[in-house]
Amino acid sequence: MEESLKNYLTLLFLAIIWGSSFILMKRGLEVFDFMQVASLRIVIAFLSLIPFLPKAFRNVEKKHLLPITIMAILGNGIPAFLFTKAQTHLDSSLVGILNAIVPLFTLILGVYFFKSKPSKANIIGIMIGLFGAVFLTVNNLTSGVVLNIYVLLVVLATVFYAISVNVIKKYLHDLNASSITALAFLIIGPFAIIYLFTTDFTNQLSSHVDGYMALGYIALLSVLGTSLAVIIFNKLISRSSAIFASSVTYLIPVVAILWGFFDGEKITAYHLIGMFIILSGVYLVNKKSPTK
């Protein structure tokens, strides 16, 4: 198999994993509340990454501790709760579409705080993408402009993701992805465990007819969507380029929309227009800058 074909198949595989995460969250929310789903996601990911900790401890240095803590809280901790809370009121397909604006905020924050130098196409992409985000934020055009707070929660989560991505790129480039992720979840995992067992999680698990099935969906979300996907993504970057690997963001909303459609969610022309606007911006943002 040619190397380029391997790269495209890997890209498609990642898009299916990450694009499916929103429908898996939806399934978990049918049994557990949003705090429990987010906590379970963190706990299961933490447990699945324990085998990577010995290598991570050997590689980590004192200079890595603060960036890893920032990544843990803003890249893995808070967004998990924001996404699940938002999805209690939004379709999984819409959440998937909004997730595509992560590269837009990554570039904006990179310019102002991390000294990156975007091209003109990148700047145009930012404006187009943000317009798309605002377009999707409008709740009802016929009765005036009403902002949906739950969409804004998703947007806030993408900002946190963007901060995390910039921190990883600037301060954690000398650590491999498995070590970074394992250490990050070591920081937030124990807190999630403590919180989880202060709730009625065990009662819901045993008493609800779909309790164990919902837990299985969340486990898939945690192990595949968090642990395994990060390692695969890191390998794809080393085998191709960061620009090629980041193009997975084009495909994630498409997968999320397809899952939503098959799950009976209503996909309107309004959503498709918003998706097209955002993806147009994402395409321009991912065009190669003068400096990498």
How would you describe what is shown here?
With 292 residues, this protein is mostly helical. It has one domain. The protein is built from 14 helices and no strands. The chain has helices at residues 3-29, 34-49, 53-59, 65-86, 92-98, 102-113, 120-137, 149-171, 177-196, 201-207, 211-239, 242-246, 248-262, 269-285. Helix 4 (65-86) runs antiparallel to helix 8 and helix 9 packs antiparallel against helix 11 (211-239). The longest helix is centred in the C-terminal third of the chain and has 29 residues, at 211-239.
Short précis:
The chain has helices at residues 3-29, 34-49, 53-59, 65-86, 92-98, 102-113, 120-137, 149-171, 177-196, 201-207, 211-239, 242-246, 248-262, 269-285. The protein has 292 residues and is mainly α.
Please give the structural blueprint.
Blueprint: H1 3-29, H2 34-49, H3 53-59, H4 65-86, H5 92-98, H6 102-113, H7 120-137, H8 149-171, H9 177-196, H10 201-207, H11 211-239, H12 242-246, H13 248-262, H14 269-285
Helix pairs in contact: 1-5, 1-11, 1-13, 2-4, 2-9, 2-11, 3-9, 4-8, 4-9, 5-13, 6-7, 6-8, 7-14, 9-11, 10-11
The run of helices and strands is HHHHHHHHHHHHHH
Specify the biggest β-sheet. Answer: none
According to DSSP, the number of beta strands is 0
Q: Helical amount among residues, as a percent range?
A: over 70%
Instruction: Compute the separation of the termini in Å.
Output: 29 Å
Strand percentage = under 5%
Low-confidence stretches: 139-146
- Number of separate structural domains: 1
Structural class: mainly alpha
Estimate the mean pLDDT confidence. Answer: 77
Helix count equals 14
Radius of gyration: 19 Å
Shape summary: globular
